[in-house]
Structure formats: structure tokens, C-alpha cells
Amino acid sequence: MADGGVVQQQPARNGYQNLDRGQRNIPADQPLPQDVWYLAFLATLCSNCRDMCRLFRGPWRAVFGGKLEALVRCLCLPCNVITQAVNEQRANFRQSGIVYLYLFLGVTVVINLVVPLRHVVVPNAQNIQLYFVLGCIVLAIVAMFYLWLNTLETLEYRDWNFRAGSPPEALMRVFYKGGLYFFGFLSFGYSVCTAIDHIICGKQVSATVNVVKALYIVIQNLFLNQFYKARIPDDTYGIQAIMAHLLGTNLALWFWTLCSEEVDESVACKSYPIPLGNTEKYFSPLFVEYLLIAASLFYQIWQDLLPTQAVAAPHCRTCACQVIVENDDVENDDAENVDADQRRDGGRGANRIRRNLGLGIVLGCCFGVLFIILVIASAASGETHPIYHVAYSGGIITLYLIQIVACYIILLSAQSLAWDAQRTSLDHDDALLYISLVGSLLWEGFHLYSLVLIEIDPSIEPKSLPNVRHIDIAADALAMLQYVFQTTILINLRRHQPTQGRRTTWISQCLLFLLTTNIGLWIENSFFVEIIITTPGEKYTSIQKNLKPIGYILHPLNIFFRFHSAVCCLIAWSIFRT
């Protein structure tokens, strides 16, 4: 491929797809030779370095051309290598959108649920809530314009009458479009009137939110009028994130409406220019209905995304998406070579599995024992001697980082394995893992948000130490990343067909490590973490004490998440151990 050229897509024949010149010819329906996971990582690194060297060549006066692009790639090299080493499979696209939606809704619940708790007196909480809503709406408007400009000419449309017994299209149009226009028009008018009242009263932030909300209703109605039956011919990480954000924005506004407090009469205007009175209790349900209808339409559009043909990536000869169109003789020869490589790698891999069976358990137990010692020391003396709590926080940050690395190794090692058609649907183990994930994310989210509020206004908790608080904030953010990454890896992993080889060895050992460390974290959550949303040895803050009613709901889910994660690791290891 020439510099700046475009990869030409060729139709696949006989189960083969395109490869760059010089790469091996491998049937698309067979697993690839099981090279170790870091070869894909190193191949991606070399490819990025070659691209940067190519961009640096030429006259130095071209500062705003290839030189600037090369500089940006150099700064983003670690992130590019980590993300590009993973094959772009459609299942990963869909799960990336689900992960974004999970995180988005988790942040929404935390930010909005703190405001209605009247015993949590935090002046900045309501402003943060309004700024968050404003940011969500603005991003959603930008996302809709992006989809409108980039996909409008290539849209396909579905027929709602394709199922027997489904409602006629006319009734569906009346329900969806009629509901959107009726509830949307009333919500638009109420938002405009509320914005005028807030402008006169000097509430600039609230007025801005209502103006943007009214604009959002108009733009969303126009967008859904064109896209409500559309099938967007694109299915990438970006499109998945956009659809997740559009769906999540409607759900976030719905939750924000439910959690909004009534106007405090002590700070309200003596006389509003538009006397709305107590009309909010009548218009809020209308806005809620509008949001739920819009969310259902966005969910349908998200479900009907059309997968695009994968573009051959030039960075890795082991990627499952890279295969070439050749004649039948070449196909047969390459299939025999692949079988020989698999048998040879399988024999060596089986011996290695037997020889290193306990390596993952040994490493996991070592880290687990050290971590439990830090937990006990922090729980016993952390409040009087902050150094013990700092040591605990440093230990759990290290543990989370190593767990994330183990999950990434599993991801790279499993990406060339074939999918198991019998494990494609969600079972009860997956459902339990997703449900408990909600509790763990909200637990860490409330703890993180309480520390952020103190960071914004230290007068809320003068005794809180800034350095300790900063370490706890980093630990909470890393914990949420580890929760999501581990859950997605465990759910995806059990959908692959196990084969013997070096990659299976890495997967087995990393699963054993995750198994033992999750048991250690389960011990911590069960015996050393109290109902109050806090960590062992941390000095309680007034916000955390007032969040105790929420802790009664989230604490059991947080405990169950670690226990069930260990069970899922054991199930996955039993699949890949042989």
C-alpha cells in the first residue's frame, strides 16, 4: 500500500479475506498458529514506529504536515499500541458501547442521587449536577449532527412488518412519532417558560440548562423523524459509543428529572414573570414519557446497526481478521501448515501447562497475602497513623494495575481463538456478574464523588488530609476501570473455543491469578469494609456517614461481585486448563 493510499476491499471467496502482501495465507474459519500474546503487541509497536519514521522523512519545512502528525503519534504511542494490538471484532464493538453506557449511567446515578439526600449538605453538588446535565446534552447534540452529516446518504431502512403478528407500521408511527411530537412539544414549551423565569431571577446556570434542553428536544425530534426506521451502515467503536451516549442521555435526563428537588421558597423570586405555580408535577411526567419513547427508539437503532466489512490491518500477521484470497491449492497447503503448527505448538503447550500449573496460584497467593496484611494494618491503625492507610492504598493500586495487565494478556491471547456458537447468549452467570457490577461501580462512584466534593470545598471536612485523599481518588478511579475490564474479559472469554498452545497457557495462568486475588478482595469486602461507604483505615467524612442508607443496598452487591468474579474465573479456567 502506498503512502496515504486506501486499502481496497475485495470480496471474500471460500472463507478467505484480504491480507497485506507478504503475510501468511490462513483460512478464515480456522484458528491461527498460537504465537504468544506479546508478539502481536511488539508487531503493533514496530508498525507504529515505522509509520512515524516515514512521516518524519522529507523536508523539515513541512512542520504542519507529516512532522506534526508524527509528533502527535509519538505522544500517543502507548495508547495507540495498547488499543491497536487488539483485533477489531464486531463483538468487541458492541461490548465497548455497553461498557460506555454502564459507566455513563453509573456516573449519572451518583451525581444525581446525592442532591435529593437532604441530610447531605453540599452546596456544590447541585451545580455539578446541572453542569453534568448540560455537558450530556451538548455532547448528544454534537453526536446527532455527526451521524446526520456522515451517514444520511447511506442509510438503509427496516420494515416493521417483518414479524408475524407485529403491529402495523401505521400504528407504530402513531405511537412513536405522535408521542414524540406531543410530549416533546409540551416539554419544549415548559422548558422555555422555566428558562425565562430563571433568567429574570438571576439563575444563569439553570436558565442555560433549560434553554439547551429545549433546543435538544427540537433537534432530537428532527433526528428521530429521519432515523427512527434507519439502519446505520456502520458498526465501529465510535458509532457504538455515540449510540450508547444518545441512549444514555435520555436515561440520564429521566433520572435527573426524578431526582430534581422542588424550588426552595427562601431563595425563590417573590414573583415570577410567568406564574407556573405547581405545574411542574404535571409537566415532569410528560417529559419522562418523552424521554422513555426516545430512549426506546435509540435502542432500536442501536440494535439494528449494520456491520461493516473489516479492513485489513497491516500491523500484525497473527490477527484473525487478516487472511488472503488465493487459489484452492494454496488454501490446502496453508491449511496443512496451520494444522502442523497447531499440533507442534499444542504438544509444547500441554507440557508447559502441566509444568506451570501452579504459577498463577502462587503469584496470586503472594499478592493476596501481602494485600491482606496491608488491609489488617490499615483497619487497625489507619485512623491514628495515616501512613498505614497510605500503604494500603498504594498496595491496592498496585494490585489493580497487575489485574488489569492480566486481563489485557487474556484479551490478546484469546483474540485469535474461534468463537463457540453454543455460548453466544447470556446465561445466568453473566446476568449475575452484570448485576453485581452495578453495585460495585456505584460503591466506588459514591466514594470517589464524596472525595471530589471535599476536594472542591475543603471546608466540608477540614480534618481530611489532601495527600491521602488524592491517593484514594486514584484508587477509586482505577478500581472502576478494573471492574469493567475484568467483567468484559470474563464474559467474552467463555465464548471462545479452547485449543492447546502457548496462548492457552497464558490464559490459564492469568485466570488463576485473577481467581486468587479476587478471593483476597472478597475477604477484604466481607470482613474489613463497613456499611459506610469507605475503605479500611480511612477517617469517615460527614458525607460518607450520611450515605450509609445507600451503603446498605450496595455493600452486599459489592461483596457478591468479588465472589462471583472468582467463580467465573474458575469456570473459565476449567474450560482452558486442558
Low-confidence stretches: 1-34, 161-166, 262-267, 309-336
Question: How many helical stretches?
Answer: 17
Work out the number of β strands.
2
| First-to-last CA distance | 41 Å
Structural classification: mainly alpha
Order of helices and strands: HHHHHEHHEHHHHHHHHHH
Shape: globular
Strand content: under 5%
The main sheet orders its strands as: 1-2
- The average pLDDT is 76
Number of self-contained structural domains? 3
The percentage helix is 55-70%
- Mind describing the biggest β-sheet? 2 strands, antiparallel
Radius of gyration: 27 Å
Keywords: Cell membrane, Hydrogen ion transport, Ion channel, Ion transport, Membrane, Transmembrane, Transmembrane helix, Transport
GO molecular function, one term: proton channel activity
Main location: membrane
Membrane topology: Multi-pass membrane protein
Question: How would you describe this structure to a colleague?
Answer:
Keywords: Cell membrane, Hydrogen ion transport, Ion channel, Ion transport, Membrane, Transmembrane, Transmembrane helix, Transport. InterPro entries: Otopetrin. It is found in: Cell membrane. The chain has 578 residues and is mainly alpha-helical. The protein has helices spanning 37-56, 63-75, 77-84, 90-114, 123-151, 169-200, 204-227, 237-259, 280-303, 328-355, 359-381, 386-414, 428-456, 466-493, 502-527, 542-546, 548-576; strands at 156-157, 230-231. It is globular and about 70 Å long. It has a two-stranded antiparallel sheet. The protein has 3 domains: 36-86; 95-155 and 165-305, no CATH class; 354-576, no CATH class. It has 17 helices and 2 strands.
